[in-house]
Design goal:
The structure is a single chain. The chain is α/β, with parallel strands linked by helices. It has 13 helices and 13 strands. The protein folds into 2 domains: about 190 residues, no CATH class; about 160 residues, 2-Layer Sandwich (GMP Synthetase, Chain A, domain 3), CATH 3.30.300.210. Strands 1, 2, 3, 4, 5 and 6 form a 6-stranded mixed beta sheet that branches. InterPro entries: GerAC_N, Spore_GerAC-like, Spore_GerAC-like_C, Spore_GerAC_C_sf.
Length: about 375
């Protein structure tokens, strides 16, 4: 009994000792952003970290950016990360929000090599968002957005998909890792500097793990409509030659897939609901059902035109699939998919894609007919 009592006491003492490997937060370099460019001084890569500095947070009520920038060049990603410790505390990556790659670096070194260490290291979250920069990626992290760290600003902009259809759904480190393992093409958002401000504009398409082509924000809008990935936003169109705005409330989306003679066919049907939020036509008469139906037809016609132009671009000009159609092929034809996945861009380019959308106006505010026509 005495021996059991001693063991129990020792166990309690162990619980009181705390974490043996704990460290003060001030002794950690808490990374919230990472940019990767071509290296300097004949090195392969340059890694620019944005570190959160706990001492700066709320200091004297200041609105200053509570971060600092540390850049290091090296020949491998892991060695460069460790070399950062020569200038700062060791890197702590559990809170890394964004990773930005420069097009120059990704064109020179395959992206699967650049993220190899990140995937192997479980200290970096696979939910970290990834972006492509047309110019120096490290420069973007130095932009101060009214006291908000650049990394946080980029992350926040990416969450605005309820306000605009021209934003891609955030792409994570885990997402691109899966695509690369399957040897498939994919797209990621482009982070740019516009008149000294951070902005997400269009998307970068990667094929064979290297930059392949870029598409515009308007084409991102068409891509989201094609895939039914719309949380909200405004579509501009014309009626009688005059501009109007259609605010999206919701969308229902269905894709039917068939396969005949070694060829896939995708039939996409969507139903979009919204409101007539703005109309520049002086002869508008929103209380007239016929006028509303004419506006609905204009919305449908315009969306179908934009989406079909995008389909033509992807299938015939770029010959690359950045949609989620491959998932339908994998789910509906699993045995065939085992073979087709290795050359999916070719099968996508040869597929028949029919797109149809029905638009409904549920609301037009309190403004109707303004004058006799």
């Amino acid at each position: 009994m005495k021996k059991k009592g001693i063991l129990a006491a020792l166990s309690l003492l162990l619980l009181l000792t705390g974490c043996w490997d704990s460290r003060q937060i001030e002794e950690l370099s808490i990374a919230i952003g990472l940019a990767m460019d071509k290296g300097e001084d004949d090195k392969k890569v340059k890694m620019t970290y944005q570190f959160l500095v706990p001492k700066k947070i709320g200091q004297n009520g200041s609105a200053q950016d509570p971060t600092k920038i540390v850049a290091t060049s090296g020949n491998t990603v892991h060695q460069t990360i460790r070399s950062t410790a020569l200038k700062n505390f060791p890197v702590f990556s559990q809170h890394l929000h964004v990773i930005i790659f420069s097009e120059d670096l990704a064109s020179d070194i395959s992206l699967d090599a650049l993220i190899n260490q990140f995937i192997r290291d479980n200290s970096i979250r696979r939910s970290s968002e990834v972006y492509m920069a047309p110019g120096p990626a490290g420069r973007l992290l130095k932009i101060d957005d009214a006291g908000d760290p650049a990394s946080e600003a980029i992350h926040s902009i990416a969450q605005n998909r309820a306000s605009t259809i021209k934003l891609l759904k955030p792409v994570t480190l885990g997402d691109i890792s899966i695509k690369m393992q399957k040897g498939m093409s994919f797209i990621m958002p482009r982070a740019v500097e516009e008149k000294g401000q951070l902005q997400l504009e269009g998307g970068a398409i990667l094929k064979n793990n290297k930059p392949y082509a870029n598409i515009s924000s308007a084409q991102i809008e068409a891509l989201n409509l094609l895939m039914g990935k719309v949380n909200g936003g405004v579509i501009e169109s014309r009626h009688q030659g005059h501009l109007f705005s259609y605010e999206v409330f919701s969308i229902t989306h269905r894709v039917h897939i068939t396969r005949e003679n070694d060829k896939y066919k995708f039939t996409v049907r969507s139903h979009i609901k919204g409101r007539l939020s703005e109309d520049w036509y002086k002869g508008e008469d929103s209380f007239n059902p016929n006028y509303i139906r004419a506006i609905e037809r204009s919305v449908q016609k315009d969306i179908e035109k934009r989406v079909r132009q995008l389909i033509d671009l992807l299938q015939h000009d770029l010959k690359v699939d950045i949609t989620d159609f491959s998932d339908y092929a994998r789910i509906n034809y699993p045995k065939r998919w085992q073979k087709d996945q290795h050359n999916w861009d070719k099968h996508f380019s040869e597929a028949d894609i029919d797109y149809h959308i029905n638009a409904t106006i549920q609301d037009f505010g309190t403004k109707g007919a303004t004058q006799a026509r």
